[in-house]
Amino acid sequence: MENNASIKAPLSMQDFQNLLAENQGVLFYFYSESCGVCKVLFPKISALMESEFPNLKFIPLSANDQKELAYQLRMASVPGIIGFLEGKEFFRSNGLISMGEFHHRISRPYSFFFDN
Questions:
Q1: Quick check: pTM over 0.70?
Q2: Dist CA 33 CA 17 (whole Å)
Q3: Number of structural domains, the chain?
Q4: Mind listing the pLDDT tens digit for each residue in 9-32?
Q5: For residue 71, what is the domain's CATH number?
Q6: How many CB atoms are located within 10 Å of the residue 17 CB?
């Protein structure tokens, strides 16, 4: 996960709000380097985001680097995934999620916004 576009510097709530304002859709993926599930799930989620949901900006965040933001967003465990469309939360998952469930829960709201 180190070679991906993970943001290392702690994000303030204002930085977070700016990311939401600058992008119609954003999906944040909170992970930990010591989390086995995170290591297995990350490449699958990343590939799916690129192939099926390219209009959602995918932002991996180290839960260790982003403790304050994770706390403010109530991301209680890793992997923690939270998605926003037009600044409104539409998806949240803490812990293990199957790829089928992830795809199902993202695809419908995504199609309303981007498949017009």
A1: yes
A2: 26
A3: 1
A4: 788 889 999 999 999 999 999 999
A5: 3.40.30.10
A6: 12
